[in-house]
Amino acid sequence: MVTGGTGYIGAHTVVELQNNGYEVVIVDNLSNSDIKILTQIETITGKKPAFVKLDLRDKSSIIEFLKQHTDISGVIHFAASKSVSESVKNPLLYYDNNISTLVNLLNSLTGKPVNFVFSSSCTVYGEPDTLPVTEQAEIKKAESPYGNTKQIGEEILKETANATDDLKVIALRYFNPVGAHQSALIGELPNGVPQNLVPFITQTAIGKREQLTVFGDKFDTPDGSCIRDFIHVVDLAKAHVAAIKRMEAKEMAAAYEVFNVGTGNGYSVLELIHTFEKVTGKQLNYRVGPPRDGDIVKIWGDVSLAEKELNWKAENDLTSMLSSAWAWENYINNNPF
């Protein structure tokens, strides 16, 4: 069961699951995705995943779904709102969509043995004291409601997994997913104005957006802009498969585990922009604006634990990330959904 499976990371993970022989059923309310992604997944993998349109805020619908799908042994939970800036403006939306849905899902799964992978985030660390940040770093007060929902979600899952023998959980703390599948048939497709950096870059480069804003250039970083650990979405998708396999092989050291998933390298926003220009030959129209509320200045991860325990490692570099994102933007421009 892949919740939010027609979304950006979800769709790429469904591809990797099907390529590894898993039977997948996607649950999604299509609030920030398009049903046509199912056809794209079928073109890539040769198989169309099962799909049920369902809003996880409706607990009765989840219960009915599970009655119809009694053979589910694993859940990968992506369904959530994900914009830091939007969460600052509309916190109740985030607590409703990110927390109540998780509680509904866990309540509905009570008594069913299940392996559960949670889509967490490096935002749980807040502004880290030391870099690279490890899984043992202090969990500070969240910088945004979005980050807080990920902290709360992890706490709910840890406490629930420790209270029952039925639930095994791996929380993957993502850094910043970018890029698209090498086929250019699936990629990041936000509804409306993009909330993430790379789709805003590609939409500006192709002419859909007039100008890109860099939020601050006076931070304590080499070029003054924020620094992030960017990871190719296909590498991230493969980490979910590795997590499921770890649980199936009963290799977990505890009922609840956490892993950083990134490259271990930090790149600034301006560095990303200039690399995109170099890779694509497109000059970007950008300006520097004021910093955004809730943004962390610099963060990148120590990913050695995931490499060791999940037998997983990010393989794609920044050039691959940005060239694939540009290929996807060109595809979607010529083949609009």
| Count of runs of 4 or more consecutive helical residues | 11
Largest sheet: 7 strands, parallel
Question: Mind telling me the C-alpha Rg?
Answer: 19 Å
DSSP strand content: 15-25%
CATH superfamily: NAD(P)-binding Rossmann-like Domain
Strand order in the largest sheet: 3-2-1-4-5-6-11
Low-confidence stretches: none
Distance between the termini: 25 Å
Q: Within the CATH hierarchy, at the fold level, what is the topology?
A: Rossmann fold
- Class per helix and strand makeup: alpha/beta
CATH architecture: 3-Layer(aba) Sandwich
Overall helicity: 40-55%
Shape: globular
Question: What does the average pLDDT come to?
Answer: 96
Assigned CATH class:
Alpha Beta
Tell me the total number of β-strands.
Answer: 13
- What string gives the helices and strands in order? EHEHEHEHHEHEEHEEEHEEHEHH
Description of the structure:
The strands form 4 sheets. The protein has a 7-stranded parallel β-sheet, with helices on both faces. It is of the alpha/beta class and 337 residues long. It contains 11 helices and 13 strands. The chain is globular, with a radius of gyration of 19 Å.
Provide keyphrases for this structure.
Rossmann fold; single chain; 40% helix; 7-stranded parallel sheet; alpha/beta; 337 residues; two-stranded parallel ribbon; globular
Please provide a brief summary of the model.
This protein is α/β, with parallel strands linked by helices and 337 residues long. It has 11 helices and 13 strands. It has a single domain (2-332), classed as 3-Layer(aba) Sandwich (Rossmann fold), CATH 3.40.50.
